[in-house]
Structure formats: C-alpha cells, structure tokens
Amino acid sequence: MNMVSLSLPSWVQGVNFSKKYVSDFDKMTLAIELSQKNVAHKTGGPFGAAIFAEDILVAVGVNRVVPESCSIAHAEMMAFAMAQKHYKNFDLGDSELPTHTLATSSQMCAMCFGASIWSGVRRIIYGATARDVESIVGFDEGPIVSGWQDELEKRGIEVVPEIARDGACAVLQSYRDAAGIVYNGRRVSADK
Amino acid sequence: MNMVSLSLPSWVQGVNFSKKYVSDFDKMTLAIELSQKNVAHKTGGPFGAAIFAEDILVAVGVNRVVPESCSIAHAEMMAFAMAQKHYKNFDLGDSELPTHTLATSSQMCAMCFGASIWSGVRRIIYGATARDVESIVGFDEGPIVSGWQDELEKRGIEVVPEIARDGACAVLQSYRDAAGIVYNGRRVSADK
Q1: Is B4 an 8 Å CB contact of chain A?
Q2: pLDDT of A189 strictly over 70
Q3: What are phi and psi for residue B181, nearest 5 degrees?
Q4: Closest among B109, B55, B59 to A3, alpha carbons compared
Q5: Does any CB of chain A come closer than 8 Å to the CB of residue B126?
Q6: CB B157 within 8 A of CB B123
Q7: For the segment A97-152, what is each residue's pLDDT rounded down to a tens digit?
C-alpha cells in the first residue's frame, strides 16, 4: 500500500541495448525514436530519454504521466530511476562508475532540471528547446534560473543543446496533430 | 524489469489518517514528525512531507534516496506520487477534487519546486528554509529562480513559509549530530 510503481510500456523491450551509441547524434536518435514510439503507441506524452555509460545504453525512459497517473513520471525521471536501479546506486556520478550522459528529446522542464543535478549524470544532450515544447505543444515547462546551463556546468555537468532539433520537433508536431493530452498541473485539455 | 517501485518505510503505517489536521501548524507538525521518525528509524534523509485535502490527510512521504537507491525519492516526490495514486489522477488540482495542501518539513529543492507545479497542489507550507538545510546539514538545494514564490502564486499556488521552523531545524540538527549521509549528486560523504 505504501508503495508506488512506475512502469515503462512493454514496447520498450524492443530497444537495442547491445548496439554501441557512439556519437551524440546516435544517442539523440534513440531518445527521439523513444518519444516517437511513445506517441505512436499512445503510451504517454511526446518525450523520450536515455542514459548512457560512455557509448553503452544503460536505461531508457518515456513520459508516463497520464498512464501511470503520476505527474513526476517524465521521461528523464523514468530514465534516472531506471539507471539508478540498474546500479543499485542513487548516484550515477559515483567515482566507481563510468561517466553518464543523459540524452533527452526535449530540453528539461523545471523539475527535471533539478533532478538532473541530483542524478549524477555528467553530460546532458537535448533536442527540442523548451520554447519549441511550449510553442508546438503548449506544455508549460516551468520557471528555470536564467543561467541554468552555467549552473549545471558549475556542478560538473556539460550541456550540449539542440542535437537533431528538427527531428525532435517533428515528434512534438505529430503529437499536436494527433491532439494529445496537454497537462500541466493547472490545465488539462486536448490541445487544438 | 522495466519498472521502478518506491516504498515508504513500514513505520509509516502508524500515521494517524483519521485525525483532522485543521491548522497549518497541525499539518506542519505531522510533516516534521515524519522527518524526525525517518531520522530516528534510519530510513532515509531528514525530510518529511504530507498532502492534505482541506483538513484530511491523503498521503505522506519521507526521503528515501539512499534506501531506495533513487535520487528522485525526495519526501515531496513520494507524497505527490502517493496522493496521485490514491486518486488515480495525475493532477491534484483537478476541478473534481478538493483543494490540496503540501506540508513539507523543509523548503523544496530545485527538483521538488518544479514538481510542485505539476502536482496540482494549491497551497504549500514549509518549515525550515533552504538556507537552513544548506547551513545545518550541508545539502545542496540547487538553483531556483529568485522570484520562485511569485512564480508559484502566478500559477495559483499559495506559499506559506517558515511554519514551526525551529522544530524543523531541530530535526536537521539531529541528523547532522548523528552524522547522516549527505548526498547531492556531486558529493557523497558523511557530514562532519
């Protein structure tokens, strides 16, 4: 009773964990593919994320807010939790572990920004910008400090913006076209 | 395999869900009591949170980062997830639900600040300040926009600061005195 379980959709079992994801473009391609499949399968919002130890895929996440009835189940949060479960370690930045990269199809919202710091990842690459998310789909991304990239770099986290941005935006657009649910705590409505 | 489960400690079963928590002080007293019990039972960090529908207790949360090997398992996050599970609704601000208050023993970190917006709570009361947490225990609370209370109020969320702050700080001090683990993604060490 005093437990919450958050699941990824079953189609995630098809993700290729044996392939090497060498470049940032390779990593982002997977994150965007996850976001696209989540829209196609109607298993959550148009967001995908993946965590890599160097070029090895460790964990994936997709947005599960609506299917799991849980506002914290963003793609990045799912990926952080899955990766940490994999290692049984709450800190992916542990000195005994390899360096971890988060690839996320869209720039992090206010919550996931904070969570990225606690996660222990050392690199973050993203596709669509927060403005893209707000202008294409209408999600509120929340207030983030203006120098947020500097704040991450100060904490030893490198940020690489707008990798394959067009591809990430195309998925957001497809979600909009399919009139996916837009939720943001204050407003729940099918987007026009 | 593609699932993460986050649990509260078994002592949480002793929490009184039939009592009415009328005043903000009543609500905060429970949040602080949860933080204190979490320290006493060594079941996580010195943070407690509770969510109320008017004066009815809906869900509680305590920090479970270390025992659950999960950096997102902050007290507030656990409470949001538990309350949303209770209603099978990702939005505690749903017009069909009563107004919800989050009581948290310490001011929210950067992650929980963002999460509070998505949660749907309409009121947030807190005990110790972020500065208290940083100065007493040494946790990094992360970067939050300077006008964060205004940002919440703009989104229809009332903030009531520093309720029973001394009591909340006393628990932080007891955690420090017991040399509890201080983790923050970049640094994992027993605090001196």
Answers
A1: yes
A2: no
A3: -65, 130
A4: B59
A5: no
A6: yes
A7: 999 999 999 999 999 999 999 999 999 999 999 999 999 999 889 999 999 999 99
Three-state SS at B135: helix
**Calpha distance B127→B137 (Å, rounded):** 15
**Inter-chain contacts counted by CB atoms under 8 A, chains A and B:** 190
Least Cα separation, residue B125 to chain A (angstroms):
18
What is the predicted pLDDT for the residue at A182? Answer: 73
- Please answer whether residues B169 and B128 qualify as being in contact, where contact means their C-beta atoms are separated by less than 8 angstroms: yes
- CA end-to-end distance (rounded Å), chain A: 38
Mean pLDDT for the stretch of residues A79-101? 97
Asked if B12 is an interface residue toward chain A (Cβ–Cβ < 8 A), one would say yes
Q: Any CB–CB contact under 8 A between A174 and chain B? A: no
Say yes or no for a CB contact (<8 Å) between A109 and B114.
yes
pTM: 0.94
Question: What number is the average pLDDT over the span B84-113?
Answer: 97
What are the distances in angstroms from CA B180 to CA B11, B44, B174, B192? 19, 9, 9, 9
pLDDT digit string (tens) for A36-78? 999 999 999 999 999 999 999 999 999 999 999 999 999 999 9
Catalytic, out of A54, A68, A76, A134: A76
Whether A178 has a pLDDT exceeding 80, the answer reads: yes
What residue type is B92 in one-letter code? L
Please report the residues numbered 47 through 86 in chain A whose beta carbons come closer than 8 angstroms to any beta carbon of chain B.
65-66, 68-73, 77-78, 80-82, 84-85
pLDDT band for B179, please (50, 70, 90 cuts).
Answer: confident
Give the DSSP H or E segment for B28.
helix B24-40
For range B28-49, the mean pLDDT: 97
8 Å CB contact between B58 and B51: yes
